[in-house]
Amino acid sequence: MFSVARAGFALAVFASLAGCASTPGETPKAAAVVAPPAPYMGLANGSLGQSLTASARTAANNAELAAVTSGERKTWRGDDGSYGYIAPAAAGGDCRDFTHTVYINGRPQTAKGTACHVGDAWKLNS
Predict the structure, then answer these.
(1) What is the pTM assigned to this prediction?
(2) How far is CA 119 from the centre of its chain?
(3) Cα–Cα distance between 30 and 87 in angstroms, integer?
(4) Which of 83, 77, 56, 74 is nearest to 115 (CA)?
(5) pLDDT at 7 over 50
(6) Which band of pLDDT confidence, cut at 50, 70 and 90, is reported for residue 17?
(7) What is the pLDDT of residues 19-58, one digit of tens each?
(8) What share of the chain in percent tops pLDDT 90?
């Protein structure tokens, strides 16, 4: 016995599979894969942060990215007792100058940088 519900289900399955069929000789198209933007690598990845732990370096880079994105001063604190702040300047086109100050054992270290908006991400200019 073939019910109307079964016929409807069979038609729905057949219709959904019909969209998957390809013409003979045609190569199936793959879905476009969009890679996520690379993580922001800030001044803490250079000599400014060589004494920081990995998690403190991540906190410093995240604060630096937040500062250049927003144009507002941002602070951070590492798990190793280090801390710091980023003071961004006014944006100039797609780029923004900033000063990043890191305190390790109470001693400040300062570095200046410029980050530019490239596509959907910010990148530190060297």
Answers:
(1) 0.68
(2) 12
(3) 45
(4) 74
(5) no
(6) very low
(7) 444 555 666 555 566 555 567 788 888 888 888 999 999 9
(8) 46
Q: Using an 8 Å Cβ cutoff, are 97 and 89 in contact? A: yes
Structure tokens, 16: 């959904």
Q: What is the 3 state secondary structure string of the chain? A: CCCHHHHHHHHHHHHHHHCCCCCCCCCCCCCCCCCCCCCCCCHHHCHHHCCCCHHHHHHHHHHHHHHHHHCCCEEEECCCCCEEEEEEEEEECCEEEEEEEEEECCEEEEEEEEEEEECCEEEEEC
Neighbours of 41 (CB within 10 A): 15
Per-domain residue ranges of the chain: 43-125
User: What distance in Å separates the CA atoms of residue 35 and residue 16, rounded to the nearest whole number?
Assistant: 29
Q: Which residue has the tokens 């004494």?
A: 51
Judge whether 64 and 86 are in contact, CB under 8 Å. Answer: yes
For the chain, how long is the longest CA-to-CA vector?
85
